[in-house]
Design brief:
Elements lengths: L1 E7 L6 H14 L5 E6 H11 L5 E3 L5 E3 L3 H17 L14 E7 L4 H5 L4 H4 L3 E6 L2 H13 L11 H6 L11 H6 L7 E5 L5 H23 L1
Parallel strand pairs: 1-5, 1-6, 2-5, 6-7
Antiparallel strand pairs: 3-4
């Protein structure tokens, strides 16, 4: 039995920091919940390395800009395929019961209504959403800091060009309510957090949200 948690927000909004904390938090709770983490940056990076059609261009610090935005839709479809592969039943050591599976899916887009249309309705049904809201100037500063002083494999470059030409739209800063209605997503399955400050400011709310998701997933298995 699997549950999906989409972690959304601008580059630099704290998606990867939050995802890493969720992984560590669940492990510290000694939960039997397994976690799979899918970051569409990794998918896009593989596409960039294999690009022969000028759909990308390299940037400083080993980064890249996406020139052909259709590639962004392809990446989300690939993310769904990877998630479905991870949903194959995994048994505990005595093969007596299924373990709950939490699939984290991270991505940033300029329009989440259009982005979510790239996933099948069945895939989105019952999913959870954590939206991290942060001002674009703060996100830019965080990206500059992480590139200058990388500490994790997630500390990627995002160019000023992409911020200014792609993410400057109002639609990149909100998760529209009608999106949730379109896919029958329950209100309690959506959490939007202001993450303009330190991660510690939202840590507690993230953990409570994750506790609820994991508990609900475990209950579905044992009901």
């Amino acid at each position: 039995m699997s549950t999906k948690l989409f972690i959304l927000g601008l580059p630099g909004s704290g998606k990867s920091t939050t995802a890493r904390h969720i992984v560590d938090y669940i492990e510290q709770q000694k939960s039997d919940c397994q976690i799979v983490r899918i970051n569409d940056y990794d998918i896009l990076y593989d596409m960039f390395k294999a690009d022969n059609d000028s759909k990308f261009r390299p940037t400083e610090h080993g980064g890249f800009d996406v020139i052909d935005h259709d590639i962004l839709d392809t990446a989300l479809k690939t993310a769904e395929q990877e998630a479905k592969r991870s949903e194959q039943p995994t048994y505990n050591q005595d093969h007596a019961a299924l373990k709950p599976l939490l699939i984290l899916i991270e991505f940033a887009r300029d329009d989440y209504r259009l982005a979510l249309q790239q996933f099948s309705p069945q895939f989105l049904r019952g999913a959870n959403f954590l939206f991290l809201d942060a001002r674009i100037d703060i996100c830019k500063a965080r990206v500059r800091e992480r590139v200058a002083h990388p500490q994790t494999p997630d500390d990627h470059e995002v160019s000023e060009y992409i911020f200014d030409s792609y993410y400057a739209k109002d639609s990149a800063h909100v998760l529209p309510a009608n999106v949730m209605a379109d896919y029958y997503i329950e209100k309690q399955s959506v959490k939007a957090l202001d993450n303009n400050g330190a991660f510690d400011d939202i840590r507690g709310e993230v953990e409570v949200f994750v506790d609820t998701i994991v508990k609900h997933t475990s209950n579905k298995i044992h009901s």
